[in-house]
Amino acid sequence: MVKIENSKKTIMNLAEELLQDRGFNGFSYADIAGQLGVKNAAIHYHFPSKEELGIAVIRRYRERFKLWVNNSRIKDLSYPEKLDWFFNIYSDFRVNNGKVCLVGALEVEFNSIPEGLRKEVESLNKETLVWLEALLEDGREAGAFQFKGTSASKAAVIYSSVQGALQMARALGTKKFREVVEQNKQDVLV
Amino acid sequence: MVKIENSKKTIMNLAEELLQDRGFNGFSYADIAGQLGVKNAAIHYHFPSKEELGIAVIRRYRERFKLWVNNSRIKDLSYPEKLDWFFNIYSDFRVNNGKVCLVGALEVEFNSIPEGLRKEVESLNKETLVWLEALLEDGREAGAFQFKGTSASKAAVIYSSVQGALQMARALGTKKFREVVEQNKQDVLV
DNA sequence: CATTTTACTTACTAAGTAGTAAGTTTGTCA
DNA sequence: TGACAAACTTACTACTTAGTAAGTAAAATG
Which of A85, A104, A134, B103 has the most CB atoms around its CB within 10 Å? Predict the structure, then answer.
């Protein structure tokens, strides 16, 4: 018997990577078990269904995001620095094996994933937009940002473009992703 | 024996819809055969492998785009009208059963689709960006558009954001997609 | 030390996957 | 009318999928 240390966490880490690499329909329990050197059923012991595994991964991601944005290390940054921090989340995805955003990946498969997963994706998407919208709103009032339209619609453009750019970079390379980030920054920084 | 009229075309139409609805790994030959009322093998007769079917669909889409942009009905439009035409392609996707962009869908699955398909996606993505970049470049010179940065990077932001917004609309609704289109227009129109 | 709980393996099911080979029906054309 | 090709069906293979039930080994607990 092969024992995994910190089983649940390790399985979720792998599932998260696979999700960002191939999407929900693109990986199987066998992929996870294989990489960990255990049998399929060992994964089912910790996460009876694939839906539960997916939900656990996104729920953890949501918690992580909540912790980050409420952490003083990020809360005390200037407005442009906060925006940079946001872009860097996705730059790290790109650099780290060409991952895409969890939200985008699961929304492409939205019509073929379980209900519970869809709800989690919706929540994560909303929470991210709410944070970004507040940043843009406050930053504009403080004179750090400038842009036309509402901060809600500008947040939607920025988030959706970063999401799309991570996907585009799969076909066109990292340079294309960086182009999108730099253009977005130019578009809002005073 | 059930005969399909215009078999190849009908199969490609269905495959395109399924691709935009669930992605490449999200549909099977059985889905197509079932909807057409024929057997699996009938699909294999026209498209021996799933890769060939996928390639055929994207190649046809590329041809269609080429024909459109070279058609006088679009070529003779004003710069803002051309931009509107571009956005309307994707608005139609959204309205028509919440489809997403072929490029985005296949780039999410990029690491788990056949080689030949990846090359087609890359080509379609490039061709779209080249057209949009030229529109922005010429429109800016003519005084119809204004934006910071290069027309290449602005084209990348617009295209990736529309791609991302179609996905986002799956979780957050059509309103969110429209928000992104309107914001993009405000960002470039003088 | 005995018992129970945790974390796995073995062995399986039922369903779905792409793909193939051989046979059948139907329309076309010489 | 006969031959042939096009467009299917039947019947199958080999493989992968999520998920389950029963058994085992090791660690924790009393």
Answer: A104
List residues bridging with B189 in a β-sheet: B145
Q: Is residue A138 part of a domain?
A: yes
**B25-57, pLDDT tens digit by residue?**
999 999 999 999 999 999 999 999 999 999 999
- CB-closest option in A157, A172, A179 to B180: A157
DSSP assignment, residue A4? P
Cβ–Cβ below 8 Å for B164 and A168 = no
Q: Is A98 on the interface with B (CB under 8 A)?
A: yes
Show residues of chain A in contact with B121, CB under 8 Å: 171
Q: CA of A134: how far to CAs of A20, A29, A153, B117, in Å?
A: 27, 39, 12, 40
pLDDT one-digit tens code per residue, A28-58:
999 999 999 999 999 999 999 999 999 999 9
Per the structure, the complete domain to which residue B115 belongs is given by 58-188
Average pLDDT over every residue of A79-100 = 98
Residue A28 lies in a domain: no
* CA–C1' A16–C18 (A): 27
CB A144 within 8 A of CB A78: yes
Report if residue A37 sits inside a domain. no
Q: Can you tell me the mean pLDDT for B130-151?
A: 98
- Region at B189 (left for phi over 0; alpha for psi -120 to 50; beta for the rest): beta
**Sign of CA pseudo-dihedral B45, B46, B52, B57:** negative
Distance in angstroms: CA B31, C1' C15: 15
Upper half-sphere CA count for residue A151 (Cβ side, 13 Å)? 15
Please tell me which of the candidates B22, B118, B167 has its beta carbon nearest to residue A163: B167
Residue B48 burial (CB count, 10 A):
10
Q: Which of A27, A96, A108 is the best mutation test for B, with the most CBs of B within 10 A?
A: A108
Q: Is the pLDDT of residue B79 over 90?
A: yes
Which pLDDT tens digit goes with each residue over A123-166? 999 999 999 999 999 999 999 999 999 999 999 999 999 999 99
Total domains, chain B: 1
Q: How far is the CA of A49 from the C1' of D23 (A)?
A: 22
CATH code of B147's domain: 1.10.357.10
This prediction's pTM: 0.96
**Structure tokens belonging to residue B175:** 């309103």
